[in-house]
Amino acid sequence: MPLHIAFLRAINVGGRVVKMDQLRALFEGLGLSKVETFIASGNVIFESPAKAKALETKIAGHLRESLGYEVGVFIRSPAEIAAVAGHQPFPVADLEADGHSLYISFLSSAPAAEAAERLRALRTDLDDFHIHGCEVYWLCRTRISESAVSMAKFERAVGVPGTMRNVTTVKKLAAKYPAAAPRGKRRD
């Protein structure tokens, strides 16, 4: 049965606390199997024969009904996570420099060409952006809380819903749930 990795937006931020056992139960209540959570920031791994887009809609509706607020759901396969974790959007020296962090925004769809222009306009000596498929990579050469680019500005520039994770989390997920065989991009 296919393995799916869901990245949830609005879980355990802004005063909205959802315990991981409750989150697992919500996913199991949808008939999803082998449900696991990975750190308490809205990463859920499960098996289902359903397609990613159908699952995103179904899970988002169930979470909205159960939790009382909108939760964005962005699903990727292990092969997609491996590709995202392995993508090299910036020079290695920049990625490994002290104080630099790389964040990855998982999007509902690939951003329009205008998004690339808007992100270019946000670039500074501290912040750089790279679009690759349905993800945006954000290199922050300081702490993200000290960046001149706010999350609101970033989200307006991208123009489609998404949720962000540190590259360390993404690499840990890729290592823990390796792709059985490369299957290419899967946004069905």
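Above is the first protein from milestone M3; the second protein from the same milestone is given next.
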Amino acid sequence: MTQIINQIIEQERKKTDELKKVIERRYVRINSYDFKSLMFINIDRILAERNLLVKFEVNDINKQIMNQLYYHLVGHKEKFNGNMQKGILIAGKNGIGKTLILKAYCETRKMLFGRSCNTFHSKKLVELIRENGYDDLIKREIMIDDIGKESREIVDFGTKIQPIADLIAFRYDKGSLTFATTNYKIDTLSEFYGITTTDRFKEMFNLIEMEGESFRK
């Protein structure tokens, strides 16, 4: 009986070691100069895709956020202001660049890790879930833009569902790395989604509040 127990313990240890390796693969070795070079390349491309021939202006606010994203990427425990096993939720007003910066971060991660980190606007994501369900969205890294702007409840074949809240629950259970932006504070999100979902937000995300006024003219 002892031999059987030892075999079970060894099998479980191997499973745990594999899970730890997955977590370790979330980090990459890169210096801050190269990281910011990739970020600026992606920022310029995203702006061009929006038909915007403007230069991204670095200021004290977005510089600090990019530093934190760098520490998150490389797993710098001493300098990152949060838990590196969690994703990132950037909250702030419209037009201050939070989507641009976080999308560029996801694109940079895609370059470095060679795996998808696709961005979905919350409204489009609701329609995608309605059409195709949740399965393809549960495990892979994703970014959800403008959480709180979508229809929070829809009717699917006569059944009421809460697409974003349900997706967050599924991803929470799998420990999937998620990135997001929102215009709302956490208290307002709690009013939208309820305490259970916003508690999951707190468990899944490092909340970064981005200050400033809109750059759009």
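Note on the second protein: The mean pLDDT is 88.
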